[in-house]
Amino acid sequence: LMKTVSSVFVCVLVLFVSLSSAQNYWKVGAGIRTIIPTVNGATDYVVPVPPEDCCSAGTFVQEFDVGEIAVGNGGASAHWVRDVLNARVVAIGPDPNGKIMVLVSVEVYMLFRNDLQEYYQLVKESVGDEQYENLLFFVHAQHNHEGPDTSGLNKRPINHEYYRYMLEQMRDATLDAINSMEEAYLFFGQDQFYYGLGDVRDPLMQDSTLRILRAYRNPERTGVPIATIVNWGMHPEVTLGYSPEFPSSECLKLNPPIPNCSANGRYFTHDYPGHFSNVMDDLQGGGVSLYFNGAIGCQIGRHAPVWEITPEYPLGNGSVVPEGATIVPENFRMAYLIGRSLAQFAHDIPLINLDSPIPYGEFQYQDISFISRLTNFAFRVGFVPQTAVNPNGDPNRPLRIGNTLRPAYICEGSSPTIADCVSDNFAYAHDNVTGLPYRLGSFIETEVKFIRIGPLKLITIPGELAPELSVGLPHDFDLPSSVSKYYSEPEAHVTGQAYTMPGVVSDMIGCSLEEPCWIFGLTQDEVGYMFPLSDWKILCTASDEECREMHESGALAYPDSASGYQCKNVTDHPTASEQYYVSNFDYPTWKMLNDTCYYGQMTGKAPDHYEETNSGSWDSAQDYINAIS
Question: Global pTM?
Answer without folding.
Answer: 0.95
